[in-house]
Amino acid sequence: MSEVPDGRSPEQRLADLGLTLPAVAAPLAAYIPAVVCLGFVYTSGQLPFTDGKLPATGKVGATVTAEDAAVMARTCALNALAAAASVAGGLSGIGRIVKVTGFVASAPGFNGQAQVINGASELLIEVFGEAGRHARSAVGVAELPLDAAVEVELIAELAEPRAGTGLG
Questions:
Q1: What DSSP letter does each residue of 130-168 carry, written as one string?
Q2: Which of 15, 24, 64, 119 has the CB geometry, 3.0–4.6 Å to 149, for a possible disulfide?
Q3: In Å, what is the CA distance from 168 to each residue of 49, 76, 78, 79, 139?
Q4: Domain segments of the chain: what residues?
Q5: Which CATH class is domain 10-166?
Q6: Could you read off the pLDDT of 118-136 as tens digits, one per residue?
Q7: What does the DSSP assignment read for 16-58?
Q8: pTM
């Protein structure tokens, strides 16, 4: 079971933030939300869906503010945690967050991608403590699926690695 130094589980930390894991988002194409391979969970890119809808669409730095995009990145991370937890046996099945990749649909001249993806990184640290600190890439892109402003994927290490590969 993954615990942060204060002894609270990731589930407890999430609840303390007033958050719950959403249902895993249905794939938009030919992929699955998460897969376990050799002791790691890899999630597909997660959009900032809330109750099945995107809160806003468009380019950060044009129709979407960097502050709103950071909130969306936090939602993407929560959705990625739901996908990871679904194959890891819950949040406590995740030992640490290893890598986060964030994509920001960026208007020409917008270069605040790192600050936007901080929304995702900060949530992961709040939920997992030091085990939530991770390597990261924040990438500006021209377009994302459904005209989303942000997309986040993550790699997590299982708390108790399992042999082999597969979905769980």
A1: GGG--EEEEEEES--GGG-SEEEEEEEEESS--SSEE--
A2: 64
A3: 24, 22, 19, 18, 29
A4: 10-166
A5: alpha beta
A6: 999 999 999 999 999 999 9
A7: HTT--PPPPPPPSSSS-SEEEETTEEEEPPB---BTTB-S--S
A8: 0.93
